Every structure is written in C-alpha cells, then in structure tokens.
Amino acid sequence: MIWSAAKGLMVRDLRLLWRRRGDALQPALFALLVVVLFALALGGEAQALAKVAAAVLWLAVLLAGLLALDSLFRGDAEDGSLEQWMLAPVPLSWLVLVRTFMHWATTALPLLVATPFLAELLHLPRTQLPVLLASLALGTPLLSLLGAVVAALTVGMRRSGILVALLALPLYVPILVFGAGSVAAAAQGLDPTGALLLLGAGLVLALVLAPLAAAAAIRIALD
Amino acid sequence: MPEFDPSHPPLLAARGLSFARNEQPVFGPLDFSVDAGEALLVQGDNGAGKTTLLRVLAGLLRADAGEVSIDGRAANASLRSRAVSYMGHLPALKSDLSALENLDFLCGLHGRRRGQLPVNAMSIVGLAGFEDTLVRQLSAGQKKRLSLARLWLAPSPLWLLDEPYANLDLDGINLVNRMVQAHLRAGGAALLTTHGAYAAPPVRTRMLALERAVANA
After folding, report:
1. Are residues A88 and B101, on separate chains, in Cβ contact within 8 Å?
2. pLDDT tens for residues A99-128?
3. CATH homologous superfamily for B12-210?
C-alpha cells in the first residue's frame, strides 16, 4: 500500500513536471543568473573568482532552492489534495517524504548536474570540484527537508513568499557553514571529511524527523 | 431512533459531538447514528456547520467534545482511513493531469474496490470519452462527476458527501442518487449535506437538521 501510493505520487509528479517543463528549468536558470551576477560584480578576474567560487555556488543553489520551496505543498493545499492525503490509509509523513524527495529531484538535482558547468564559469579549481559536489549532494536534500517543515507551516497562508525565506534562512545557516566550509577546508589543504560527515549525519536525522514535523505542521495549518 | 442493538452496532455513531471555533460554538452537542444501508441527510442554512460537521467526522478537524464511533469502535485515524471516504468542496484534482491519470493516482492513494476499474467508473459517471481530457478543460459539473468516480472506486463503506448535488445538472443529481442507492444496497452508508432544495436519494433516510449556533449560547 505505501509503495503503491509512493509510486503513484512519483508518477503524478513526473507527469506534472513534464506538462510544465518550462517551469522545471527555472531554479537552474535562477542559479545561473546569480552566478553570472556575482561574476560581473566581482569583475571577472579569474583569481578573485576562484577564491569565492564555492561560496557563491553554494549560495546560488541555496537561493534557488528557497525560491522553489513555496511550490512544495502550495498547489496540493489549494486544490484539496492535502486533505485527501490526510485521509488516506498511508501515513501523511510518508507522503510528505516522497513529495519532498520528488521536489528535490526536480529542483535541486538539475542544479547539481549544472554545478560543474557553473564551477567552470567561476574558475573553481578542479581539485575542489569533487568536494563541492559531495557537499551539495549531502546538503541539498537536507535543505529540502528543512524547507519542507517551513513550507508545511506556512501552507495555510495565502501569500507567504518572504515569510518562507525568513523562517527557512536561519535554519539553513549551519548547512551553509558546513557545506561551503568543507570546500574552503579542502582549498586550504585540510581534510573536508569532518564537515561532510556532519552534513551526512544531519541528513539522516532530517530524513527521520522532518517528515514527521512537516506532517504535523500540515495538520495544524489546514485545521 | 431505533433501539441500540449491541450485535449490530451502527456504522457511524456520534455522541455529544460539538465543535467550537474561537470559543464560538459551531454545532452541537449532536447525537446521531447511521446504520449500514441508511443515508443521513444533514440539512441546514449556510453557515449552520454542515461542512464543519463532515470535516470533524472525516477526522480533518478535532471535535471539542463528544465521541465518534465507527462500527462500534472509537474512531481513530487508521480506522477512519479504511472506513471513510470524504468528498469535500475542493476536488483534489490536478488540473494539468488527464481525468484518468487523476483517478489512477487517487486509487493508488486510497486503494480500490475489487473488480472496479477507473475506466468503468468513468463511464458510470457519464464521463466516457473524457479519459484523456485534461482536468483544466472539464466543467465544474464534470469535475464533480470525476470526484464521484473516485468515490465509487474507493473501498470504504461510509461516504461523507459535502454538497454532492452542487454544480450538477438534473441528470447528475439522478446519478448521485443512483450511486448512493447502489452503495447503500451493498451495505454502505452515506452522509449528505444539502441546504434543502434537492431531491433526496430514494433510500432509507434519516434527517439531521442543523441550526445556526447562537453566539454566547
């Protein structure tokens, strides 16, 4: 039952993505623009760019994810889908987890794929690229899961764009610190494993707790 | 009210059920029961609390007092999810998916009655030929019919229908009545809210009249 519901939800989300494939590219385009703006503002000097490249890429991915966050549950709340999720024989937290995973796969994963290209644009030293990719692969699901709790809390409100950002950004601070920090450590020749392991531990914790918290928040928000 | 028979507990029973929003009573305390093969028609003016009552029974809202039992057992989330199908004002349909794709998803979510196929359900509700039409291109009445098809496929014995006649033409109203009749004959029960003007299904029906709760009552 829980697998058929999960499969159904995945198929549904992929179909919706395909019907609106124009929208699917937006987070990646946004990240590209942020990167270009940084490059322009910093003067395009390769040395200066290389120093901040990892931090800029992390910020671009984080901001793009934040932009996409509001769409996580909003559509399903407005057309009553969330009500039916709550009444289904499948735990709401499980559906929330699957939905968050699909949201991550459709908004953050394309960014991850685009990262080597964007890194090249910012003259990131090639030796740092694997660490950057590892930190993003661990960090972006964590961002999505924490974001899901915030999105669930604000799902009952009509317009909550800036509120979502205000609630989510403080929660994102540690992830940004460890994510960008791991690449900075690697740049200085230090071992980045510690920061990556912490991100991994955070991800495991969030995988278990965030869906439960988000499900509880949805129940409260739709009361 | 018939005598309580412990060997056949009512499919749905509520005792002393009441709900208040911001200290203002919305309805209750209410006592009623619905047996298998019966329909309960919840009537009341706009704002009398019909929708709220159905949402409380479905488990979307928590009652302030009183208890609900399903088949003689106190209602909890897992019991409700198997026994209750709720059709509210929001259709829970994705406008960018086709009618059949929506049904497929909702069947995966709620489970499906044995021997029932989404395609058949669509022809029962008069939507044959619209399987591949995007829901955004369907009319309000057709969306209602699609929700009815979802209800028809669900395996739950208890239907909670909030204004099932809204947006439907005469043929659609007959369709709702025929579906409720068939569902009751198969041992199910249904709660329908209506503000009164429509024909009730030709089945054993109980009435529950809700009056607008007076503030400070």
Report:
1. no
2. 999 999 988 998 999 999 999 988 899 889
3. P-loop containing nucleotide triphosphate hydrolases (3.40.50.300)
